[in-house]
Amino acid sequence: MADVMTPVFLAVMAHGTMIFCALFDRQEYIMASLPPSFTEDEEAIEDFDASICVCLGLSLVFIVGEVIALFRQVPPRSVSLATFFTHNIACLILLKFTVDIHPVSHFWILFAFTSFPTALAQVIILVKSFNKVKYC
């Protein structure tokens, strides 16, 4: 049986690192989200800044939750492989987002399809582990 946890951990860490880097380099993504006929409207810039901060912050929180769940309980092999492939795909897409500046809405789509399902799977595994424990 091959070790699956090491590649999963590395993929989750790589995804988290790319999200962390995008969080501190978000000004270009905000400008890419603005329409071409943009006039200096401070509210629009603040809205997009808040949107990308929330999206990337939630992604980081979910990734930290996944790492904690990985340390608490080893998930089944199928979940581990799905997590591994999902985070690898997310890293490749984030690399594309870094090279070609993308609007904020693309980060939300990436969050919905990569960070949320894997974190949800870890939460379901955690809840099922509590159901198996019998309390006196």
UniProtKB/TrEMBL annotation:
A UniProt-annotated Pfam family: TMEM107
Presence of keyword Hydrolase: no
Membrane-crossing segments per the record: 48-71, 78-95, 107-127
Keywords: Cilium biogenesis/degradation, Membrane, Transmembrane, Transmembrane helix
Subcellular localization(s) per the UniProt record: Membrane
A biological process term (GO) from this entry: protein localization to ciliary transition zone
UniProt membrane topology term: Multi-pass membrane protein
GO CC entries: membrane; MKS complex
Primary location class: membrane
Protein name (Swiss-Prot/TrEMBL): Transmembrane protein 107
Organism, scientific name: Panagrellus redivivus (Microworm)
